[in-house]
Amino acid sequence: MTGREVVESAFLHKRATRLPVALVAGGEWYVHQAGRTFAQIKNDPEQIAAVFVDAYRRLGQDLIWTGAGFLNYPAHFLGSPIEDDTSDTPKLTETVIKNLDDADALDFRNVFENKTCRAIISSHHLIAEAIGKETIVMPTLWGPMTTAARILGAEAVMMASFENPEKLFRLIEFCTEYIWAMGEPMLDHPDVTGMNISDPVASADMISPALFRQYVTPCLKDLVRRIKGSGKHASIHICGDSTPLLDEILDIAPTCFSLESKVDLEVAGEKLGGKICVLGNLSPTGNFLSGTPESVIQEGKDCIKRWGDAPGFILTVGCDFPKKVPFENVKALMSLKSYH
Length: 340
Hints:
Blueprint: H1 3-11, H2 27-33, H3 38-41, H4 45-59, E1 63-64, H5 73-77, E2 82-83, E3 91-92, H6 115-131, E4 136-137, E5 140-142, H7 144-152, H8 154-163, H9 165-186, E6 194-198, H10 209-229, E7 233-238, H11 246-252, E8 256-259, H12 265-272, E9 277-282, H13 287-290, H14 293-307, E10 313-317, H15 327-334
């Protein structure tokens, strides 16, 4: 079976002939491995695609989040300055707006004239053309809460959740529309099989389940509905300890949920097993970064054991990982293709 086929089986909560193994996020690692900077490749869809395709050819991951590392560019397209002259994940140096009163003037209609924006969107199609029949090609974007934090600032978003909830929700709704406007053309290729939405600012480490239910659930449900409505798979990633949010994830109902190493896979399996495919959840900064290939293999086997026998599991790292992770450790994770 191809990687795409084993992942599709997991999405359908079926046990394939082998365990699917993925490498979520990892944009700066890919760019660093290619010996490039984001600035060097950002305006050329063929160069962007080559970074991801070459990494796949070396590793053979069963699912890949294309566009990983490029997630801050949509805020840059709205006016936030960005630093991208290294292989580090591009960094926004200012917010787009200074206060919520400026949010009503935000407009993304001209964004798609930007050369970098067009290149990023086109790169997903080129990747799908090259490897989409072999592996799951899944573009990734920031979620609505995180996009709002990039536009306004994370602290200001936290304060506004109590002080100005109506205006904040309008900003988050704008972000939802912007994400879909950016993501819909990415999905316009038969071998782009889905989309991932990462929303780290929506983590239960940052906001309460009540605030998640108020601000995040409605917009993620909307995006999942649109993605599935286009005939594609919808993935959600939430950083930190998302254990208190698992009921909300059930309500949002993505095809799959990517969770961090803070979440006990036994608990996640009890709650989501047979209902939502789970991706997880090797620590990206523990053995993966500073251990040996043998220690990575042992931690990966521990993840498989904690999940148990339920179908619908994809082994991967729990979150984005540093560019200094040794290639041998990544290759060790990719070698774990047995359910036992």
